[in-house]
Design goal:
This protein is 42% helix and 15% strand. The chain is α/β, with parallel strands linked by helices and 218 residues long.
Length: 218
């Protein structure tokens, strides 16, 4: 059995947000090799436009192009979807996706149907994670069904973060989209095989990569 108790983090102040934005920009300006930035978490901040504000500032103040990924949910994700400045990537799970489209989703076919909505048109890469059933992905105007191998589950906490880590790595290495998706899935699964949270071994990832099936969908 696995029991997880999750509490809100400390309240974030507007000054802290300003400092975070400035730090992101400063680090990226100092290190030109940084090509990918991921904004994730469930920040304890009242303004639903939090991540939209960060995306806008980073996009406008950096004098070069970087790939902006987000792993957020709820009102903050809905706010991002409703605004002009979009991230390159979002990763709702089936429950979070259902909240976005205001309808309970029961299978992958339904996910594909709603992923074709104009709501996701301006986001290049949308991954809807489906737990042990893999994921459904929209990449520009292409759709993919991701199926994963069965493994012995040890601890799933941190698998979403590990998935984003794998995608970030593959994007940074400029891999083809199929490889990007496989790396994301492999890292997410690799995390579930470990007792620790957010623990991924290169050996497990390499063993899992050929076992992940990516099928194009009409």
């Amino acid at each position: 059995q696995h029991t997880e108790i999750v509490e809100q983090g400390p309240k974030i102040t507007p000054k802290a947000i300003k400092d975070i934005i400035e730090k992101i920009i400063s680090i990226c300006l100092q290190n030109k090799q940084i090509n990918v930035i991921c904004l994730s978490g469930s920040a304890n901040y009242d303004d639903a436009a939090l991540y939209t504000t960060i995306l806008k500032n980073v996009t406008e103040k950096l004098n070069r192009k970087v790939i902006l990924l987000t792993d957020i949910s709820g009102e903050k994700l809905e706010n991002v979807l409703a605004n002009k400045i979009k991230p390159f990537f979002i990763k709702p799970n089936t429950h979070e996706f259902s909240e976005i489209i205001k309808k309970d989703i029961s299978d992958k076919k339904e996910i594909v149907k709603y992923l074709k909505s104009s709501l996701f048109e301006e986001i290049p890469l949308t991954m809807v994670s489906c737990g042990s059933h893999g994921a459904v992905v929209r990449y520009n105007d292409c759709f993919y069904d991701l199926n994963i191998p069965k493994i012995t589950l040890v601890n799933s906490t941190g698998s979403g973060d590990a998935t984003v880590g794998g995608i970030s790595y593959a994007l940074d290495k400029d891999m083809p989209i199929i490889e990007v998706l496989k790396y994301g899935m492999a890292c997410g699964i690799a995390n579930t095989m470990e007792k620790g949270v957010g623990v991924v071994t290169i050996e497990n990832v390499q063993n899992l990569l050929p076992k992940i099936e990516v099928t194009s969908l009409p």
